Amino acid sequence: MKVSVLSVLSLVIASACAAPQPGVEDTAASSPKCSKSLARKRNLIMMVSDGFGTASETMARNYVQQMEGKPYEWLSALDELLVGTSRTKSSDSLVTDSAAGATVFSCAKKSYNGAIGVTPNEKPCGTVLEAAKLKGYTTALVSTARITHATPAAFASHVVHRDMEGLIAQQLVGNNTIGNKVDLLLGGGSCNFLPNTTKGSCRTDDLDVWALAKKNGYSTFESRAAFDALKPKTKLPTIGLFTSSHMSYEIDRNPALEPSLAEMTVKALEILSENTKHSNQGFFIMIEGARIDMAGHDNDPAAHLRDIVQYWETVAAVRRFVNNNRDTAMIGTSDHETGGLSLGMEHDYLWHPKYLKPVKKSSEVICRELSKVAVNERDNFVRKTVIPSYLGVSNVTDADVASVLRAAASGSTKCKLAVGLIVSRLAHISWSTDGHSAVDVGLYAYGRGTEKLRGNYENTQVGEFLRDYLQVDLAPVTKRLSNQLTEQPGFEWAREPPSIVTQRNVDKHSSGSAAAAAAYHAKLDSYHPLHYQGGHSHSH
């Protein structure tokens, strides 16, 4: 058998360009041998653990160590990929929401809380997903939230307020100035795709977005069976939504009805890999562990924990994919922290992971069940079922029962907080808020091209990394979006006044001219962008 010199050289180059080993600087990636290959084709996986702070990582790690007997030095799938931290403020508040938190990743620009793919002046900004699609990449969004929810929406739609999910749904399936831009969508939220004349719809109009999607070339499905039947060679574009609203918390998920985040991710990567096999461009996918955040809002430690562990499984699956696909990089972070979680409370130097283990249901499901129980039967239901069976608490106190009953009478939000508090108090977990906090969040990365991501970064720099890794220009995309409809007809909305120094109010903090104001703002928000090609580390 004859082997040509060219074949031998190809094997040598392929070996030199192989996926880097963890913790080893990837010098091959910048070599002339590899630059041509990298310039031709690459894949980028963006992972967003919504509402996930470093205390949450500690909580989950401690739980696994205690419950499974792991050694002190044991690392989670995320711990192994930690490279730094990311700051989280939006353009108008030190405490961001998920809309602004995702827009800064997708557009590499800060915006106001509530903004979806628009700038502080409410104009559309081109996203990395849109620019990638226009350059020939195959694109995907995967989330355990409604697919029209803030994080996935910010990568492929443009509205002035995050709650305009009806308009977001239309834009996601190609009813926009660019056309079809997301090749694969997996998640929840079918209610925004159904006309308001249909049972289960949450739209305010009679538009059938499922029909619109099919008209624009999408194949659609809504069942676990259809998901399982998907093959790597599945024709794109495709959209699969498994629930009317958000997908279930992992603690509540019925695997016969809903795939896990890890399962959706593995399936998506198989499809994207196969569909780009003969393409000159790779793919871009955003994967969101959305319900970590929602459990934080509910101050529900057990649901929070289970979704974190499921996110770990997803990260491990992504890492395996990167190991087997050398032109792929993964970057992961959170848009913000939720709940102000703290491990330990009052003056006791204690926290007890064991109280999270017997919990069988989320506070969301518990309170939904409780709302359907007759008022005169609720005491018995809470005393005999909720606390001892669902929460696994053997010592049922009158005070706990009374607290849940009072909260349930005031509505779902207070009920969920009261149920979560029972477990949190026993475990010595405390929460400072049922909203978001301003703390920095973890930054995680793996694969060729991520070596420069070390240290503390402004969240704008995360968006800049996505842009530079994909080698796309967002300005032409922004120009194409100049006539994009960004307000949902009949939707009333208003912006909160800014609580920090911003472009809009900077003149109040400067000594006169507009030029002085602009200079002040430029100094305030100088982020030292990091560039993928020949990049430099940021200044501290």
TrEMBL record:
Broad enzyme group: hydrolase
GO cellular component: fungal-type vacuole membrane
Residues binding Zn(2+), per UniProt: D50, D293, H297, D335, H336, H436
GO molecular function, one term: alkaline phosphatase activity
Keyword terms, alphabetized: Hydrolase, Magnesium, Metal-binding, Phosphoprotein, Signal, Zinc
Pfam family of the protein (one): Alk_phosphatase
UniProt-listed SMART domains: alkPPc (SM00098)
Active site as annotated: S98 (phosphoserine intermediate)
Superkingdom per UniProt: Eukaryota
Cofactor(s) named in the record: Mg(2+); Zn(2+)
Signal peptide region: 1-18
Catalytic activity: a phosphate monoester + H2O = an alcohol + phosphate
Enzyme Commission identifier(s): 3.1.3.1
Database matches in SUPFAM superfamilies: Alkaline phosphatase-like
Cofactor note: Binds 1 Mg(2+) ion.
UniProt-annotated binding residues for Mg(2+): D50, H149, T151, E288
Cited InterPro entries: Alkaline_phosphatase, Alkaline_phosphatase_AS, Alkaline_phosphatase_core_sf
PROSITE patterns in the cross-refs: ALKALINE_PHOSPHATASE, PROKAR_LIPOPROTEIN
Family: Belongs to the alkaline phosphatase family.
Family annotation (PANTHER family): ALKALINE PHOSPHATASE
Protein name: Alkaline phosphatase
Lineage of origin: Eukaryota, Fungi, Fungi incertae sedis, Zoopagomycota, Kickxellomycotina
